[in-house]
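Researcher: We're teaching a course module on how sequence relates to structure. For the next exercise, students receive a sequence and then see the predicted structure as tokens, so they can try to spot secondary structure elements on their own. Here is the exercise chain.
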Amino acid sequence: MPSSKFITIEGIEGAGKSTAVKFIHDYLQSKGKSVVVTREPGGTPVAEEIRQLVLNPDAKEIIDPKAELLLMFAGRAQHVARVILPELSAGKWVLCDRFVDATYAYQCGGRGLDAKWVKMLEELVVGSLRPDLTILLDLDPEVGLARSRRRGPQDRFEKEKVAFFERVRQVYLERADHEKQRFRVIDAAQPLGAVQENLKRVLESL
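Model: And here is the predicted structure for the students to work with:
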């Protein structure tokens, strides 16, 4: 059975994750890898419904931060059980747009929830599963929000203030600093060609 790898892409809104995911997918396929692309929240029919609920900018009521946290992990439980673990077991490379690091960044950093709750849910839902590589596309929040606004209508998270994303970014950078072996930080403010060259170098390390 071919060896599988689990790669996650992280970063604030406007950092270029979707573009990076497509580039990584195409690059790995060119190297003969069988790649499954997925995302969080989402990745399965049930989890995609949760995604719509969590991101809906026109929600009929304000979602409590603890409810938001539980919804994120409910979708993740389905995602891990139905997509990530089966595909890895089949020897495929799984490329995921956001994973647990995003929950620490957004729900702890952004919302101010206690990290011990995330850790507890992580152990329950994810167990020992960890990415082989996490690529953090780092970007100044003001630049990222300006980019996301140009894309069109904003979701519930994209409507947050700059200060929210500054806290999110800080947690991302702290996690990258604490787990240097897993994380690779790429300056997302660079021209696209430079970002892609950095991505290639990172992928070659696998």
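Model: If you want an answer key for the exercise: The longest strand covers residues 133-138. The longest helix spans residues 65-89.
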